[in-house]
């Protein structure tokens, strides 16, 4: 028997609201299955479970605010007995050893599931005939308050109405304020507070050092243009795919930048899972993990990146995507920024930044020519690495982007 606990979905998270269960007592669960939806300051997150078994009981209720580490549910391992003394029998042998509760919460660094998660809110029909998406807990609370959900501003997964949306709407109605304005303001303020907490902690606790390098990306862009020449627009790669691949391979050469500083010690990541900084349309940002960036073929990485961007902006991220990243990459080049000196997201120990591609004077074969270049930067934690290792990483990154045939050897 093991306890499924509220995971930490960010350095700034202290608690989360259980929006909805996707499982019921007596049901079988598999490793990696999305079992519930948790709402945090950065949105609603699909939470996975990392141990197979049968649900013995649900401890937390929908709508309940649960501190990180508190029990959400109790899971019976294969062959274990429930409270009534009946042994579970699914035809398999009982394992000799069972994972600890801590191990059951650790996300698998391999085999990421890139398929869209199941919809977590059930449709409802408003008096106007418009179909609504609203969680069961939110629907019950709206009925208790006599509130019409059709007039409530939604902030949940794929436009669904959450319990907190209903509570905010009820408070606004009592105060005679605009429901939409209050909900939007509250959500944005919570997001900014979450970012402020994490970044203030980073600058307070992490002794940053910064390195930068300007590199000519003509070879990489030429490789990309050749690769895309015979492809439909929908199947073409974008340059950030090459950047992410180069960062992933550079981390293989300098693994000391891939991991976390926890309990006064460096904990290396088991795989190369890159956090991708994504700006949200309503303001703020998230940095979910692109799993196994060192192992993905070009087209697979492009599809995975597109999927990650889409779900991040629809509030449909998963818990493993918010806990697995060992290093974050931020790219502000499309906004015209020349260079980026980033702030490390704790407990990670490094961040890579890319500026815009621009034509600059470049010496080639003794001649000054116009070449497309960009500035790459590294922010790193001096408790874990020194400038020499950071320089090795940037040199490796430069080599990969100037010799792009090394990114995906044939």
Write a concise synopsis of the structure shown:
By secondary structure, the protein is an alpha+beta fold.
How would you describe what is shown here?
Residues 76-132 are annotated as: Disordered. It comes from Halomonas rhizosphaerae. There is one protein chain. The protein is of the alpha+beta class and 410 residues long. It folds into three domains: 2-104, OB fold (Dihydrolipoamide Acetyltransferase, E2P), CATH 2.40.50.100; 122-191, Irregular (Dihydrolipoamide Transferase); 207-406, Chloramphenicol Acetyltransferase (2-Layer Sandwich), CATH 3.30.559. It has helices at residues 101-104, 136-145, 163-175, 179-205, 218-228, 239-253, 298-313, 387-402, and strands at 2-5, 15-21, 28-29, 34-40, 43-48, 53-58, 65-67, 71-76, 122-125, 131-134, 208-216, 259-262, 265-268, 274-276, 278-279, 285-286, 289-290, 317-318, 327-331, 350-354, 358-364, 367-381. The strands form six sheets. Strands 11, 14, 17, 19, 20, 21 and 22 form a seven-stranded mixed beta sheet that branches. Helix 2 runs parallel beside helix 3, helix 3 crosses helix 4 and helix 6 packs across helix 8 (387-402). The N and C termini lie far apart (48 Å).
Our Rg estimate from Cα atoms comes to 24 Å
Q: Beta-strand percentage?
A: 25-35%
CATH superfamily of the largest domain: Chloramphenicol acetyltransferase-like domain
Structural class: alpha+beta
Order of helices and strands: EEEEEEEEHEEHHHEHHEEEEEEHEEEEEH
Mean pLDDT equals 82
Gross geometry: globular
End-to-end distance, in Å? 48 Å
Domain Peripheral subunit-binding (PSBD): 133-170
Biased composition (Basic and acidic residues): 78-100
InterPro entries: 2-oxoA_DH_lipoyl-BS (IPR003016), 2-oxoacid_DH_actylTfrase (IPR001078), 2-oxoacid_DH_E2_comp (IPR050743), Biotin_lipoyl (IPR000089), CAT-like_dom_sf (IPR023213), E3-bd_dom_sf (IPR036625), PSBD (IPR004167), Single_hybrid_motif (IPR011053)
Keywords: Acyltransferase, Lipoyl, Transferase
């Amino acid at each position: 028997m093991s306890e499924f606990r509220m995971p930490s979905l960010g350095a700034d998270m202290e608690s989360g609201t259980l929006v909805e269960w996707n499982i019921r007592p007596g049901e079988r669960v598999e490793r990696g299955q999305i079992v519930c939806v948790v709402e945090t300051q950065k949105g609603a997150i699909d939470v996975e479970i990392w141990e197979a078994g049968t649900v013995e009981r649900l401890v937390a209720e929908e709508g309940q605010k649960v501190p990180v580490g508190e029990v959400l549910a109790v899971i019976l391992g294969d062959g274990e007995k429930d409270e009534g003394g009946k042994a579970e029998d699914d035809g398999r042998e009982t394992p000799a050893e069972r994972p600890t509760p801590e191990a059951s919460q650790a996300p698998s660094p391999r085999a990421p599931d890139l398929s869209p998660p199941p919809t977590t809110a059930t449709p409802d029909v408003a008096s106007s005939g418009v179909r609504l998406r609203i969680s069961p807990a939110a629907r019950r609370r709206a009925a208790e308050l006599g509130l019409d959900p059709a007039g409530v501003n939604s902030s949940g997964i794929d436009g669904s109405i959450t319990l907190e949306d209903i509570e905010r709407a009820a408070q606004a109605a009592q105060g005679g304020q605009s429901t939409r304005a209050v909900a939007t303001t509250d959500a944005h303020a919570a997001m900014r507070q979450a970012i402020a907490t994490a970044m203030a902690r980073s600058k307070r606790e992490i002794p940053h050092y910064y390195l930068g390098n300007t590199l000519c990306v003509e070879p990489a862009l030429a490789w990309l243009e050749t690769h895309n020449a015979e492809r439909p627009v929908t199947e073409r790669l974008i340059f950030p795919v090459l950047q992410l691949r180069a960062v992933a391979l550079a981390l293989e050469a300098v693994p000391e930048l891939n991991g976390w500083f926890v309990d006064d010690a460096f904990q290396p990541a088991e795989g190369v899972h890159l956090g991708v900084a994504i700006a949200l349309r309503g303001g703020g940002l998230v940095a979910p993990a692109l799993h196994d960036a060192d192992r993905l073929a070009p087209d697979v990485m492009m599809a995975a990146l597109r999927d990650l961007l889409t779900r991040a902006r629809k509030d449909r991220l998963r818990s493993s995507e918010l806990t697995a990243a060992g290093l974050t990459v931020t790219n502000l080049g499309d906004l015209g920024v020349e260079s980026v000196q980033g702030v490390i997201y704790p407990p990670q120990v490094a961040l890579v930044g890319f500026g815009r591609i621009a034509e600059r004077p470049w010496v080639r074969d003794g001649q000054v020519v116009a070449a497309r270049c960009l500035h790459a930067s590294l922010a790193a934690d001096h408790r874990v690495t020194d400038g020499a290792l950071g320089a090795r990483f940037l040199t490796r990154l430069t080599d990969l982007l100037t010799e792009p045939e090394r990114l995906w050897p044939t």
